[in-house]
Amino acid sequence: MISTSRPPSVNSAGPDVDPFSLLLRPPVNETEHERIARLQREADAKRVSDSIDEQLKADRERMRKSKQDIRLLLLGQAESGKSTLQKQFQLLYNPSALEAERISWRTVVYFNIARPIRRILEALDTYGDSDDDDDDLAIQSPYGRQDIRSASGMPVPSSSADFAAEEKSLSPSQVSLEKQLNVIRARLAPLLTAESSLADRLSGGIDVSGSGRGSVFVRSGWQSRSLALPFGKARERTSSGGRFSFSGRASLDNQHGNEMELKSRTADAQEDKLVRDVASILSACQQDIKDLWALPAVKKLRDRRRLKLEEWAEYFLNNIERVSASGYIPTIEDVLHARIQTMGVAEHIFDMSVHGRTTRWHLYDVGGARGQRHTWIPYFDDATAIIFLAPVSAFDQYLDEDPRTNRIDDSLQLFKQICSNALLKRAHLVLFLSLLSSITSYGDRANDYDTVVAYFKAHFTQVHRRNNENNRVLFTHLTSVVNTKAMQSIITDVRDSIFRNYLKSAALV
Ligand SMILES: Nc1nc2c(ncn2[C@@H]2O[C@H](COP(=O)(O)OP(=O)(O)OP(=O)(O)O)[C@@H](O)[C@H]2O)c(=O)[nH]1
Ligand SMILES: [Mg+2]
C-alpha cells in the first residue's frame, strides 16, 4: 500500500480557521526572547506601512490640490518683458522675497554697465567721429554699417588707428577726440576685463550657442547661488515664496540642493571678491564713464543709429553716479530695469487670496530666445492662462539671435502659433502690448505714438481672430512693464479675469 504524506495544509485546521491568522500565529515553542524580537519586528513593519500610507495620502491630497492650482505662462520673444512682469508679480504678492534678493542683482547691474561701455567703445573704434552721412545702410542693419561693409567685401577698419590711416588726415577735433578716447580706454580697461568674469559668474560658465551677440543666459535660481551681504558676509537665499525649479519640471531635490549649496559656498568667496573689485573699478572710473557717455561723438552715433543701446543700458548709464557709489545696493527700480536673459523655464509660486479664496499660482517665466522655445511645450497641457508679451516699440528692431528677422514679424508669428495651439485652446489669453522705449521715427516718417500702437494692436487682434476656433476672448493691455504704478492695477485686473475664467471652467468640469 502506498501511503502519501501531504504537507500540512493551512486548511487542515478546519474550515472555520482564518488561514492568515494561522500563518501569523507565533511558533508554539517560542521563547520569551524570540517573542520580544518578533513583537519589535511587527511594530517596525507597522510603522513603515503606516508611513507609506501617510505618504500616499499626502501625495493624493497634493495631487488633488495641485489640480486646482492656477498655472500662468508668461510667453513672448526675448526681451519682451516676461521676467520684468514676473518681478512685478513678485513685488505685488511676495515683496519680501524681491527685497531679499536686491543685493544679488548688483552683479547684473554691473554687467549691464560694462557691456554697453564695450559697445560704445567698439562703435567709436569703427566709426570714430566720422561725419559721413551715409545713414541708410546703418538703419537697415541692426549692426550698422560694419555689417554691410563686411557683406559687400569692403574693408572694415578694426580700430580708430585704422580709421586714421583710411581717412589719411584727421581734423584737429578728431585728434583731440582720439587723445581723450585713448585716456578713457586705458582707464576703463579693467572694467572691460571684468565684464567676462561677470558674464561667467551669471551664466555659471554656460555658453548658449546661436543665441546672438554674446548673450548671457541665467537659469532660474541664480540668485540663490550666493547673497553677498553689504557687511561682506555671504548668506544663502531662502526662497520664502518664490520657489525655484529647473526646466523640464525637475524640482530641486535635497541631494541636488546640497550639491548646489556646496558649489555656491565655494563660489561665494570668489563672487564677493569679483563684486568688490568691480565696485571699486566703477567708483574709480565714474568720471570716465560720464565723460564717455557725454561725448558729442557718442550722441552723434546714437542719433545716426550706428550705435543702438537698449533702454536698460541707457538707464544704468544715466544713473552711473548712484550705481557706482560705494555701498551701492540696487533699488527695486534698478532690479526692474536690470536685464539678464532667462534660460529654460523658471517657476515662481505665490499663494493668492482672491475674493476670500486662497489659490496657489504657479507663474512660469520662460526664456524667449528662439533656442529656448522648445522648453515651453511641457507646460502647455495644464496651463490655466497665458500672458503673451509683444513689445510694439520694437518694430524697427531685429532679433538678436537672427539679425534677418524683424522683431514684430517674429512676435506676430509666435502669437499665431500660441493662438492656434491645440494644447492651449482652453487657456485664458491675455495680450500685453508693451512699450519698451519711446517710439522712434522710421526713416523720414514721423510716427506718432497712438498711430503706431493702434496699427500693431490691429495686427495682433487680426491674428487672434483668424486663429480662434474656440471663440476665446482676447484681453489686451497696453503698458510699459517697468511702470510699477500702472502694472499693479493691470496685474490685479488680469488676476481677476484669470480667476473668473478659472472658476467658470472649474464649474464646467
Ligand atoms: N521701458 C520698458 N522697459 C521694459 C519693459 N519690459 C521690459 N523692459 C526692459 O527690457 C529688458 C528686458 O526685459 P526682460 O523682462 O528681461 O525680457 P524677457 O522677456 O524676460 O527676455 P528673455 O528672458 O530673454 O526671454 C529689461 O531690462 C527691462 O527693464 C517695458 O514694458 N517698458
Ligand atoms: Mg526673462
From TrEMBL:
InterPro entries: Gprotein_alpha_su (IPR001019), GproteinA_insert (IPR011025), P-loop_NTPase (IPR027417)
Compositionally biased spans, kind Polar residues: 1-12
Alphabetical GO biological process terms: adenylate cyclase-modulating G protein-coupled receptor signaling pathway
Binding site for GTP: 336-342
One annotated Gene Ontology cellular component of this protein: heterotrimeric G-protein complex
Residue ranges, annotated region (Disordered): 1-23, 131-167
Chain sites annotated for binding Mg(2+): 342
PROSITE patterns: G_ALPHA (PS51882)
Keywords per UniProt: GTP-binding, Magnesium, Metal-binding, Nucleotide-binding, Transducer
UniProt GO molecular function: G protein-coupled receptor binding; G-protein beta/gamma-subunit complex binding; GTP binding; GTPase activity; metal ion binding
Protein name according to UniProt: G-protein alpha subunit
